[in-house]
Specification:
The structure holds three protein chains of three kinds. Chain A is mainly alpha-helical. Chain A has 14 helices and no strands. Helices cover about 75% and strands about 0% of the residues of chain A. In chain C, strand 1 and strand 2 form a beta hairpin. The two termini of chain C are about 35 Å apart. Classes of the chains: A mainly alpha, B alpha+beta, C mainly alpha.
Chain lengths: ~280, ~450, ~300
């Protein structure tokens, strides 16, 4: 009788240790960022390396904000992010409604094409897009970054379509019998229903725009228009990098993401679980 | 008030005249002629605008000074020096207003240069500038020089040579770089020597004796100057008479000087272990030019570096007792002593630039009157011969030695290759292979020769 | 009767088209047009300023004689076929943990997933710092156990493994998908197995794995496709390593992390060979398209074998 209980306890303890170890491993890069941000630079470069700062300092934050026009980059990033989220939220449900709730021949073809576009490597379209935008004089503007969001992104459309599929057709049919056309159906019934999925999409759109690096890198040339991603990367590749400052700058950069994640964790999990499984 | 109005109108009239004159004389090639014509048109409308606006609102007219955008690839404190120079230019005249911008990413500059967002003036290393010129991204400075009869002999011969693509001047030299050997006197004495080496063989012997390991077997003091990589790739090889390219800018990696130098590097690596050296060099690279720089901390015996090093050491209060000497030659060829790369910071005008007249005016000023501000502020050597004897320049620690070397005009020039970056990528990768001990220098260089055969 | 239906169909068709129009326009402008012009560009020679000049198959000949293409392809294949299985195993392990109910599960799940939402630039930056041979935490932790760690990002033998390690930190999305799949396995299966006396390991291999196989296969192929697009991390590492006048190769030590997309990027925007870059991009596109077709076929088959879903 006693041995199985023992076994269970040992198993439990082993599981506990494994989980704690893994959590430490997964959290450690954040800790490194956090702790280095509060070290002096010479402290960061002392051997033997100490985990905790010898002296906690906050001077890296103002220093980082002074070394690069941090708040300007942040303003640029917020501007781009806000417009991108608007674009995605505006367009995604409309397209998804067409694919899920309107019975037309094109729906399946378009759904297939949408899945296919998710696979097109960005490097294939990079050069032609660069060429068009530069011919139109739109490099070094935010147009190349924001414009595409007003035409829907495949991943979000898939999530929203999945959601609309779950909405009973009867709701829309009933409205149609009352003489409503699709505009009214969409505006009065479908759109109000899809608030939760819009939240999910909004969060993803926020994250995508906030972290986007490749497009700003290709299309934005002047430092005064840099986004935070780009500004930080450029700062890092400069000659003598002050790592403590860099980590301080990075910390402020990821903070909104962590907060957003903490608040909307449920939506994240749902978004990925539904789209990942069925897609 | 009245004076101002008159001067503004006059300025614009003169600008218009100058531009239309330039448009008329430019007829050598079709593209130049058309760009000239476009400029004339722009100038005429501007002049017309000035005529109508200037009498009404003098303030605005004064603010109408043509804006010239200038991109430089310096950051931090160096960027401030450039801004100082720009401010000095803006104060010196009222026709143009230069706006400076620090842009370091090469890709960003290329993208911008090919769009209508192109800056009017760019400053970059001469090898990059030549590559741009070879790819048709730059306006020919030669044409501007010829038209105006601008006297280029104020610059040293090698600085002009460094900025020519296919025999045509494509940029003006702002300042020069060359590399010499710094040595830590204390470490040298500890190793039992009083004088710095004159040949590579001597240096090797000293380096092996001077290298120190800590208790864990890690490198504490690096004797042989394997760091910085860029110097190991250049000066260590030039000292053996080696060259990566020939006079026709064709790759020559199997050059015997290259092989000799690499074999010496490999011998040193074998002596102390590639991995321990990599760890040291990796950290040295992270800390380069910071307070923790290995040479500033007294952890490097020899350092092949530029003229800015003493100024930096002074700023970081480094206590290292250093000296400067020429890059060693070899026992067989003592005359190779003092061979070093010769690079310039170059100022050029992109082909797509909008305000070429103003750009040229600023380029001439920056590489003339402005050069001293830049050289003193950034610790770079002058390209202007007149500055060689300047008392303020000569007062900078280390400069007298470097300027003596410049006067020799023995610098090794970069090749004029359109595919230079691609070649350097291959060279670096081949060196990595050698240093990792995967191939002998002979094998790696033979592979490199095959790989780079198609480059132009 | 029949006519009315067709009219209704027509109307629905128009509505459908109208509602889908934004995406269709975007598709034509941001996918179809770039793909077609990229194909055209691949037969031309041009840099950022010159107009494309027809050169026939020159770019392709150039590509097949360029040794770095093969090197970059090998590096990319390494990521596809080494990093992918490692990531999947890690993701599955994490999913098995967070699918259990225990106190603090929410926090653990957060810890595992959070890295996946961190901006790439910030995450890569921290890793570069952690990989520093002397001051980096990784080597210091290894040193604590008496192991002297390598120069991760400077030694070509370790650079790719450093990327693999970085990748495992970023498996949150796959973990969540696996978790959802695990949750969908009916509990009754486990209960009956337990009654039959099957141990935990047996249960995992005979019940769990077959039930989630289709998800894993799908994720595996998706990861392989993503590996062919692996770009941003290496670009950030390489530019950080290079310094301004630095001497590092454009693809890391010995070009050991020169990934195919990175080489495309260098050709387009550093070497100014946009025609060649377009040709390379098209080859990549073909490979990814083939993989996508395989993915659809295989997923279908596995799903059918698993009894359909």
């Amino acid at each position: 009788m006693k041995r199985p209980v023992m076994m269970k306890k040992v198993k439990k303890a082993a599981f506990f240790i494994l989980v704690v170890l893994l959590v430490i491993v997964y959290v450690s890069p954040f800790m490194v960022m956090l702790l280095t941000a509060f070290k002096t630079n010479s402290d960061a470069f002392t051997i033997p390396v100490k985990l905790l700062p010898r002296r906690w300092v906050t001077e890296n934050f103002p220093a980082a904000f002074a070394a690069i026009p941090y708040f300007r980059y942040m303003g640029n990033t917020i501007f781009i992010t806000a417009l991108s989220v608007c674009g995605q939220l505006l367009v995604t449900p409309i397209v998804a409604y067409s694919l899920a709730k309107i019975q037309w021949k094109g729906a399946d073809i378009i759904s297939g094409l949408i899945m296919a576009t998710m696979m097109i490597p960005i490097t294939v379209t990079m050069v032609p897009l660069y060429k068009i935008y530069s011919q139109l004089g739109l490099t070094n503007t935010y147009v190349p970054l924001i414009l595409p969001t007003f035409f829907g992104k495949a991943f979000y459309i898939v999530i929203a379509r999945q959601f609309f599929k779950g909405v009973p057709d009867s709701l829309i049919e009933a409205a149609k019998i009352d003489g409503a056309n699709h505009f009214t159906c969409y505006g009065r019934i479908a759109l109000p229903l899809c608030k939760p999925v819009l939240t999910t999409i909004g969060i993803y759109a926020f994250l995508d725009a906030w972290s986007d690096y490749l497009y700003p890198m290709i299309f934005i040339t002047k430092p005064d228009k840099y986004t935070l991603s780009l500004g930080l990367q450029q700062y890092m590749s400069e000659f003598s990098v002050d790592w403590a400052r860099l980590m301080a700058a990075a910390l402020v950069f990821v903070l909104p993401v962590i907060v957003c994640f903490a608040v909307f964790q449920k939506n994240f999990v749902e978004g990925i679980a539904t789209s990942g499984l069925k897609a | 008030m009245k004076k101002k109005i008159v001067s503004c109108v006059l300025t614009f009239a003169m600008a218009a005249a100058a531009l239309s004159g330039c448009g008329g004389s430019q007829s050598s090639t079709a593209s130049q002629a058309s760009s000239g014509a476009a400029q004339t048109e722009a100038a005429q409308t501007e002049a017309a605008q000035a005529e109508t606006e200037a009498p009404a609102e003098s303030e605005e007219a004064a603010g109408d000074a043509e804006t010239i955008t200038f991109w430089y690839n310096n950051t931090g404190d160096e960027a401030k020096i450039y801004e100082d120079a720009i401010a000095a230019y803006n104060a010196s005249q009222s026709k143009y207003k230069v706006e400076g911008l620090s842009v370091t990413d090469a890709q960003k500059i290329i993208v911008a240069m090919s769009s209508n967002e192109a800056p009017d003036v760019i400053k970059h290393g001469n090898q990059t500038v030549i590559q741009y010129a070879k790819n048709g991204l730059l306006e020919s400075i030669q044409d501007l020089v010829d038209q105006e009869g601008f006297d280029t002999s104020i610059y040293s011969d090698q600085s002009l040579e460094a900025n020519k693509a296919d025999g045509q001047l494509c940029a003006l030299p702002l300042s020069a770089y060359t590399i010499q050997m710094y040595y830590n006197k204390t470490l040298l004495e500890e190793a039992g020597y009083s004088e710095p080496p004159e040949t590579m063989e001597e240096m090797y012997e000293m380096a092996v004796k001077g290298t120190k390991l800590d208790a864990d077997g890690n490198i504490d003091v690096l004797g042989y100057p394997l760091f910085p990589y860029a110097s190991a790739r250049q000066e260590l090889i030039y000292g053996f008479g080696g060259r990566w390219w020939d006079e026709n800018s064709k790759p020559t990696p199997e050059n015997s000087g290259v092989l000799d130098s690499l074999n010496m590097n490999v011998a040193y690596r074998n002596e102390f272990g590639g991995e321990t050296l990599n760890a040291f060099i990796g950290t040295a690279n992270t800390n380069r030019y910071t307070e923790q720089d290995m040479f500033f901390q007294g952890k490097q015996m020899f350092r092949l570096d530029g003229s800015w090093l003493p100024t930096m050491m002074k700023n970081f209060n480094s206590t290292v007792d250093w000296g400067i000497t020429l890059i060693p030659g070899t026992e067989a060829h003592p005359e190779y002593r003092g061979s070093s790369r010769y690079e310039t910071d170059s100022v050029a005008i992109p082909a797509m630039a909008e305000h070429k007249e103003g750009a040229w005016d600023f380029v001439k000023w920056l590489c003339g009157d402005g050069a001293k501000i830049i050289d003193l502020g950034t610790g770079n050597l002058p390209a202007l011969k007149a500055l060689y004897d300047d008392s303020e320049i000569m007062a900078v620690p280390g400069f007298p030695e470097f300027i003596d070397a410049l006067k020799e005009e023995k610098g090794v020039q970069y090749p004029q290759m359109a595919d230079f970056d691609e070649y350097m990528n291959l060279v670096n990768a081949a060196l990595d292979v050698v240093y990792a001990g995967k191939q002998t220098p002979e094998e790696a260089m033979a592979d490199l020769a095959a790989q780079s055969a198609g480059l132009q | 009767m029949r006519r009315r239906k067709t009219r209704r169909e027509q109307k629905e068709f128009l509505y459908g088209l109208l509602f889908a129009m934004p995406w269709i326009i975007g598709f034509l402008a941001f996918s179809v047009y770039p793909l077609c012009s990229s194909l055209y560009y691949s037969f031309t020679k041009f840099n950022a300023v010159t107009t494309p000049q027809w050169v026939g198959l020159d770019n392709f000949r150039d590509i097949f004689s360029d040794p770095l293409i093969w090197k970059s392809l090998r590096n990319t294949l390494f990521m596809a076929f080494v990093s992918t299985p490692v990531n999947l195993m890690v993701a599955l392990l994490l999913a098995c943990i967070v699918v259990k109910s225990f106190r603090g599960r929410g926090l653990v799940r957060t810890a595992f997933f959070l890295p996946s939402v961190i901006p790439m630039v910030a995450a890569t930056m921290v890793w570069i710092w952690m990989f520093d041979p002397t001051y980096g935490y990784i080597n210091n932790v290894l040193g604590f156990f008496g192991i002297s760690g390598p120069s991760w990002l400077l030694d070509s033998r370790y650079t790719k493994w450093a990327l693999v390690l970085m990748g495992t930190w970023n498996t949150g999305t796959t973990m969540l998908v696996c978790m959802a799949a695990l949750q969908s396995v009916p509990l009754s299966y486990y209960e009956s197995a337990e009654i039959d006396g099957a141990g935990a390991v047996k249960r995992f291999f005979y019940i769990t794995l077959p039930c989630v196989a289709h998800v894993i296969v799908y994720q595996a192929i998706l990861s392989i496709i993503n590996a062919f697009q692996y770009f941003q991390q290496v670009y950030i590492i390489v530019t950080a390593n290079a310094g301004v006048r630095g001497g590092s190769a454009a693809g890391g030590p010995e070009n050991s992390i020169l990934m195919y997309p990175l080489y495309i990027f260098h050709n387009a925007f550093t070497y100014l060979k946009m025609g060649k870059a377009s040709a390379m991009a098209w080859l990549l596109f073909i490979v990814v398209a083939v993989l996508t077709v395989i993915m659809t076929k295989v997923t279908k088959k596995v799903t059918e074998d698993a009894g359909g879903e």
